[in-house]
Design a protein that fits this description.
heterodimer; A: mainly alpha; two-stranded antiparallel ribbon; 52% helix; B: alpha+beta; Glutaredoxin; Antioxidant, Horf6, Chain A, domain 2; 10 strands; 29% helix; elongated
């Protein structure tokens, strides 16, 4: 599901996904935590990555500084 | 004077047991890639057009079997050569009028990239619409089954659930499944490929019509 609007606002699923990304999360971890189908998690993580809210290394994700601030700002 | 006819360009059909054509497509669930489904079985199906009667019955029927497919580790994705906004309006209309929420994504393939890669447009039927095609892709991205229906015939959903069951059973137990097989029925053993194995097969205590057709329970 689209999770980042063009103006950088997060959709409800985007916010859920971003808050579910803890250091070293895999897409499978996020799918298990949120109950969102894995294919949608993979697609949404790609969007969060492009928006700069998370970073990825070797299939593991973590929030970036911008991501942490976004979670705080969105309450 | 002779007329030189332009050669008809025919899209190649994908092949069974080869990697399914990769895609990245705009869908009602955002931009999705075939690779996003890695690790799951996937049924990719096309329909001719949104807001048409047979397709609407099929969309509802696919939504009804979706929980059964999910239990089997199988996802669903639809496709037609329509716009994203047409898809969104149609799935909202189905929910409003029929009370059925469409839980699976639908590809808006206006540029026909996916339809062409999978050979979904049958020019003899329609040059502008996809036929009713079904592609079963396994968790490794290999195309395992293809079924094509004409525009006028709605599909039988039970068959797709049965097909997933049969493919998974075959993979797990290295067997084949006979006509009209259902889970719990006996399965077919691979035919012996030497005379020695044919003789040995006869003594294995299986249910055999002859040496080449033996069944067993799982």
């Amino acid at each position: 599901m689209p999770c980042v609007w063009p103006d950088g606002t997060l959709s409800s699923s985007g916010r859920l996904l971003l808050t579910s990304v803890s250091p070293d999360s895999t897409a499978e971890d996020v799918a298990a935590t949120t109950g969102i189908p894995l294919y949608r998690v993979r697609s949404s993580l790609r969007q969060l990555l492009e928006a700069g809210f998370i970073s990825e290394q070797g299939g593991r994700f973590k929030q970036t500084k911008e991501g942490v601030e976004k979670v705080k700002a969105d309450g | 004077m002779t007329t030189i006819e332009e050669p008809e360009v025919r899209a190649a059909l994908p092949r069974l047991n080869e990697p399914a054509p990769a895609f990245e497509a705009v869908t009602t669930h955002g931009k999705l890639r075939l690779a996003d489904f890695e690790g799951s079985w996937l049924i990719l199906f096309s329909h001719p057009a949104d807001f048409t009667p047979v397709c609407t019955t099929e969309f509802i029927a696919f939504a009804e079997i979706y929980p059964e497919l999910q239990k089997r580790g199988c996802e669903l994705i639809g496709l037609s050569i329509d716009s994203l906004y047409s898809h969104i309006a149609w799935v909202r209309n189905i929910e409003e009028k029929a009370g059925v929420k469409i839980p699976y994504p639908v590809i808006a393939d206006l540029d026909r990239k996916v339809a062409t890669a999978y050979g979904m447009v049958m020019a003899g039927e329609s040059k502008t619409e996809a036929s009713r095609c079904v592609f079963v892709i396994d968790p490794k991205g290999i195309l395992r089954a293809m079924i094509y229906y004409p525009l006028s015939v709605g599909r039988n959903m039970d068959e797709f659930v049965r097909l997933i069951d049969a493919l998974k059973t075959g993979d797990e137990h290295h067997v084949a499944t006979p006509a009209n097989w259902r889970p719990g029925d006996k399965v077919v053993l691979p035919a012996p490929n030497t005379t020695e194995l044919a003789e040995e097969r006869a003594g294995e205590g299986l249910e055999c019509i002859d040496w080449y057709l033996c069944k067993k329970s799982l």
